[in-house]
Amino acid sequence: MIATRTAGFDYDRALNTTAAWALALVWFAPLIYAVWTAFHPTEFSTRFVLTAPLTLENFVAAWNAAPFARYFLNTVLLVTSILIGQFVLCTLAAFAFARFEFRGRDTVFVLVLLQLLVMPDILIVENYRTMRFLGLLDTILAIGLPYMASAFGIFLLRQTFKTIPKELDDAARVEGAGFFTILMKVYVPLAKPTYLAYGLVSVSHHWNNFLWPLIVTNSVETRPVTVGLSVFSSTDQGIDWAIITAATLMTSGPLLIAFLLFQRQFVQSFMRAGIK
Amino acid sequence: MGSLSNRTWIHAWLFLSPAMILLIAFTHYPAAVTLFHSFFSTPRGKRPAKFVGLENYETMLADSTFWTVLGNNLWYALGTIPLSIGIAIAMALWVDSKLKGRAFVRMAYFTPTVLPLIAVANIWMFFYTPGFGLIDQIRIPLGFSQQNWLGDPDAALNAVIVVAIWKEAGFFMIFYLAALQTIPTSLREAAAIEGAGRWYFFRRVTFPLLMPTTLFVSVNAVINSFRLVDHIFVMTEGGPDNASSLLLFYIYETSFRFWDTAYASTLTVALLILLFAVAIGQFLLLDKRVHYR
């Protein structure tokens, strides 16, 4: 904003600051509220008394009411396998698009970009059929497989690879290195910031994903935390909000803590990942 | 076409094929097969699927639920997209300026983005609880009567829209923040010397320069408005009487609750057509109206 230097009180600035803060509080309110409810006994769910006793009972009750440890393990396995798959597949494809001249390259690239529009989330009917055909229903692999060839990842890495000067791989070629060696020794190390950014986006996206895992899983051994939470909060008779908010916080906890710790990197990575 | 270009071709496809196989298996193939299955009946028990031509489409056009859900989805898009983009621009301008406690404000705006929608929908549901929830706790002392936000057909969809805006505005803010930082400071200085006010500067300089970002964000927002249905599962289950059901949620119900997969395929084709219309619209807009980098 333009620095307006006026003598005395700057009304414009004060107004903007107030509005910005008011909006921030509205945006933050649900989280503050969840924290309040989860850490206090049920009778204080809607009574905001500063002297209300703090308790961890709700977390204990939620933890014991559903196999959250298992759900967490599933989510961690899911997110890691998707990330590894994406890194490997997208790196290879992005390298081909960035560095090889071959017939039909642009057409194939358009076919890749189509996935930005038609995400696997939308094609649930046929993808479910495919998973049944492959005998993968109710496995963690089935949740991750449709997302591993990610158009977004291919696009992002291709952009990064294109900025790497070709002289570098010419030099490596003179030394007798093959394409794969050049990729691993030159391109991947230079694209580290992009991998970090993409990794954060991918982990948070798949930690939060719900619809496809809901469809493909039906047992405790495979359900990720999001599906576990939805099962938990819908089967609970006589809704105890304190326990549900505790479970809610647990589900989003690891990601939330990671976000609070690495806030700057998170925001910057989303920023970098978003620039087309 | 020598042997050299053949070798390149083989190399390229060695690198491409793992990703392309999965991409075709889970995007192109299912899209094509969805279209194919939409011309058949749903196999039930011993009765196999048989070709029914356009019958499913006729059913769809006569299905009042389909029209309700489509109307809902358009209203949902219309409600979430302009508001979340407007709020995102305001957020980005604030966070980009010198603001007291900027780090906290930025974090507060962005937090909903990293939280699972399915989890925060729980919190919002609590807010909306009639009489007991936070919103009514504030309203009732002010003399309003108790309101069942999620149970009232007139209010349910809007209640869901509010959650979507809250979830997305901070995400879109990031793109605007990135765009704002590419605007040269010399422009601001020049405008300040000319004595241009802040609002004038925003309207004539900043906002036009943000157009490519707005286009990018709005396409994302449109796709999301058809794709993100997580909160419907927790908050309303599409009810009351389909008042808050969205297209993808209806597809889910048709396929995985009523097991009418052929009809679900037909609905998916309708959704795909909508998405392609968006893409074509974007392409035309991009060509004519926006000076893209």
Instruction: Write down the CATH topology of the largest domain in chain A.
Output: MetI-like fold
Helix percent of chain B reads: over 70%
Largest sheet data of chain A: none
Tally of domains of chain A = 2
Taken from the alpha-carbon principal axes, the silhouette of chain A is: globular
Task: Characterize the quaternary organization of these chains.
Answer: heterodimer
Superfamily (CATH H level) name of the largest domain in chain A: MetI-like
> What profile does the largest beta sheet of chain B have?
none
Low-confidence stretches of chain B: none
The separation of the N and C termini of chain B measures 35 Å
Uncertain regions spanning at least 5 consecutive residues of chain A: none
**Radius of gyration from the alpha-carbon trace of chain A, in angstroms:** 24 Å
Greatest chain-chain contact? A-B, 93 and 99 residues
User: What structural class do helix, strand and pairing data of chain A support?
Assistant: mainly alpha
Transmembrane segments (chain A): 18-36, 72-96, 108-125, 131-157, 177-198, 241-262
Main location (chain A): membrane
InterPro entries (chain A): MetI-like, MetI-like_sf
Membrane topology (chain A): Multi-pass membrane protein
What do you see in this structure?
- The complex is a heterodimer of chains A (276) and B (293).
- Chain A has 276 residues and is an all-alpha fold.
- Chain A contains 14 helices and no strands.
- Chain A has 2 domains: 5-59, no CATH class; 68-272, Orthogonal Bundle (MetI-like fold), CATH 1.10.3720.10.
- Chain B is mostly helical and 293 residues long.
- The two termini of chain B are 35 Å apart.
- In chain B, 42% of the residues are buried.
- At the A-B interface, helix 1, helix 3, helix 4, helix 5 and helix 6 of A face helix 1, helix 3, helix 4, helix 5 and helix 7 of B.
